[in-house]
Amino acid sequence: MQDRGVDVSKGIALALTAGMMTALVRLPAHVDGGGIAPNGLGCPGFSPSRALPVTLEALRADPTRYHGRLVRVRGAYVDRFEMSALHPGPPVRNPWAAEGVWVNGIPILVLPPQQTVELTGIVAAGRPVFPFGKGHIGQWPAELCVSSILPLAPP
Fold this sequence. Notes:
The structure is a single chain. The chain has a domain at about 50-150: CATH 2.40.50.200. The chain has helices spanning about 1-25, 55-60, 65; strands at about 50-55, 70-80, 85, 100-105, 115-125, 140-150. It has a five-stranded mixed beta barrel. It has three helices and six strands; from the N terminus they run αβααβββββ.
């Protein structure tokens, strides 16, 4: 009888996991920008129209200038194992080169590889000396907590 209880609990856990993954993949469109709604990993929602447009290069060059500000930035989003970053491009030749900014708040498996996007979110600047940056191993100069995602056509 005890084995049967273990099987039932495993089945329930599997069903809940499958349901959560389905819910993440089927997230609704964001009403402001017509893009994908972020998953709410502690990133507040803001209208992209209120965001300061900034280039990825400017954000990387002086992240403290934008610390705590709502910005709108374009680039190629890369999502992999231990990777969630916005890079210049596409193409992205080496996603681990930290040539972009780290990204929080995007649901997993939502965007195709190296999708060109416009992200709106709040910037958190890292310290310029390793390992006090942001993201994986603290190697990124800034982090963007995403409030809206707008997939774009490739350049």
